[in-house]
Fold this sequence. Notes:
The structure holds two protein chains of two kinds.
Chain A: H1 7-27, H2 42-45, E1 57-62, E2 64-65, E3 68-69, E4 74-79, E5 82-87, E6 93-98, E7 103-108, E8 127-130, E9 136-138, H3 154-186, H4 193-209, H5 214-243, H6 247-269, E10 283-286, E11 289-292, H7 293-315, H8 317-327, H9 329-334, H10 339-364, H11 372-387, H12 392-408, H13 418-432
Parallel strand pairs in A: 1-9
Antiparallel strand pairs in A: 1-6, 2-3, 4-5, 4-7, 7-8, 10-11
Chain B: H1 3-14, H2 17-35, H3 43-61, H4 65-87, H5 92-111, H6 116-119, E1 125-126, H7 130-134, E2 143-145, E3 148-150, H8 152-176, H9 179-189, H10 191-196, H11 201-224, E4 229-230, H12 237-250, H13 257-281, H14 290-311
Helix pairs in contact in B: 1-13, 2-8, 2-11, 2-12, 2-13, 3-4, 3-5, 3-11, 4-11, 9-11, 12-13, 12-14, 13-14
Amino acid sequence: xITLSTPARIRRTLLLVLGLLLAVLLGAPAAQASPxxxxxxxxxxxxxxxxxQQFDYRIGGVLRGVDGPIADVTVTASGNGFEGEVTxxxxxxxxIGVPEQGTYEVTLDEETLPEGIALAEGQENPREVxxxxxxxxxxxxxxxxxxxxxxxSFLDTLAERAxxxxxxxxxxxxxxxxxxxxxxxxxxxxxxxxxxxxxxxVLAFAFAGAGLxxxxxxxxxxxxxxxxxxxxxxxxxxxxxxRGTGLVPMMIVSIGFALALRYVIQFYFGGATQQxxxxxxxxxxxxxxxxxxxxxxxxxxxxxIILLVAFLLLRTRIGKATRAVADNAALAxxxxxxxxxxxxxxxxxxxxxxxxxxxxxxxxxxxxxxNMGQQILLLIFAGVTLGGLGxxxxxxxxxxxxxxFVEISTIWLEADLKYVGALLILILVLLFRPQGILGRxxxxx
Amino acid sequence: xxxxxxxxxxxxxxxxxxxxxxxxxxxxxxxxxxxxxLLNFGQAGFMAVGAYGFAIPTLSFNAPLPVAxxxxxxxxxxxxxxxxxxxLRLRADYLAIVTIAxxxxxxxxxxxxxxxxxxxxxxxxxxxxxxxxxxxxxxxxTYQLGPLSMNERDLWIRIVGWSxxxxxxxxxxxxxRSPWGRVLKGIREDENAVRSLGKNVYAYKMQALVIGGIxxxxxxxxxxxxxxxxxxxxxxxxxxxxxxxxxLLGGMATVLGPVIGAMIFWVVLSLxxxxxxxxxxxxxxxxxxxxxxxxxxxxxxxxxxMLLMIFRPQGVLGNKKELAFA
Lengths: 445, 326
């Protein structure tokens, strides 16, 4: 780490990496059009059902049941001396052009619903839709039993949210442990970790799309994530470390890398959300708590993997070496530990954990999209910071707290605000205990 | 492929209101990061506070233009103080994470359906720019500015936007050559040395955060006015990263650097878009769709940010000795 090599050599390595990137980009012609990635962006799929009217303003929505989109349902809008009618398209989308902004009464004709599908309880029909100074207003009709608002007891709801939160927290922990290990050994706050998460899910989707069974696809994707970690360290971070680049510049480089990687993924994958095989699973009741089979599997898988990582860190030579490097790299090097090798292993393991986290996240959301990793990057950061930057078990504890908090807060908060709570505790923790729950005080410097 | 047209479009980006907004926000970042060494990754949040702080009073209780601008600026001051209290004592990477989280909180809050009446949730707000364009002294006709032609609205927003940029540059330049600015640069170089001279480092950092935040909120207003709409999706973390690219292009501890950086950023984006789309249109490039060409440009932005940081961290104008990091 301390030896400096000539800038020319670094320049060569970096050029090589960029060259490879370009070769990959230009060498694969329009993979978006290939059969296993039919990826029209969602915005473009909407107009399929859009009724051809030349009004500036429109009311619309998507009708979606448990089994997918619901087509051929009549929806009418009336108000302000106007009446319009439309039927939903094959993708469930409907949109009615209206002449002016204002309040309209929107009615869904329940007679036209397919058999076995009914509006969920408490869904107003007809309902009032008001424009909020925008050119379009959206209203969603919810269907089926899944969304029926049952009057469960508070404790049952709490238990159910807690189990879901635990599952979410553990999948966050997979990525957070990798991030924390990388931070601990190299000092880098890696903003590209979110893209490493996405990469795993996208790879799994690509392998599954190529006809491999999903279990094989997942294993290959995790290996691919490890390779990405290896390539990143070999091609980018090791040369930068040798150059003696500071931590803040490295952080900004990781942002550049994250942007590049995110758009490379979008370049091939497209802007749409896709589903991994088996993304719909039935609910399993354990006592009064019901959890989907996927969530339960995800919980078990992440628990096993995290215990494995903990075992490796505590009981093996390489784990001990990793902890030594994290504690004091110079001292570790002096006592004969090959620091660069340890860091390389940490990057590979971090990449694999992130990829697995991404696949589980794709089942949890559910869906694979090019920006899925970016969506949880801050939650991963929150978990890592809560526990204390650079401490592996802190990352685990912190992530579980974040996961629990996100899910349990949905009892009181609107679902679209659930991440806000987690980010708020991140800020509050830094206010009162900046070193995190398990961190040591000196780490904040 | 019409090269003339592509060039004119790229030239138009030099003085477009979006470039002005980017320049202003990047100037705010220069105050934060370049001069004070504060790694603020939440500039998009400041821009959102400015944009919503301007749009909500205008729409909700019909505030006149100066009042709306004042509210926007005051909200960004409050945001800076609220953000600064817990974070300014922290190390750079913690500060980065907290500011980026705060910016995302702002975005989630304005997107939530519970506040649709106030913020318009994901659709955002529109039709609040009437007051600004009502002040337009130019009669309605087409104006010719060199090869660029524009209507009276375009001309008015450009003149106002760039006047604000020039004024802000002047203020920052004067500030940074004042004793206050020297203390600030001292904090960037060695916080403890400045503290030992009896300066209140925390207060100086807070003042820098507020000033950069005000520039960010003004940038947010200028960014939304020509669009006539403010949408939460525009204020995601990527906006902050693009601003950092502009800042690093120009030079982070300079006054004109962010402005030139923003100009280069948008001219290059416009040129690559024009050339790629043109090449696709005439069939010279067949392996890219238009959407992919758009993504290719942002891949280039990411790569450019990496290369700049590695090989020329001081940017076009900067001085290598004046970097916020060793």
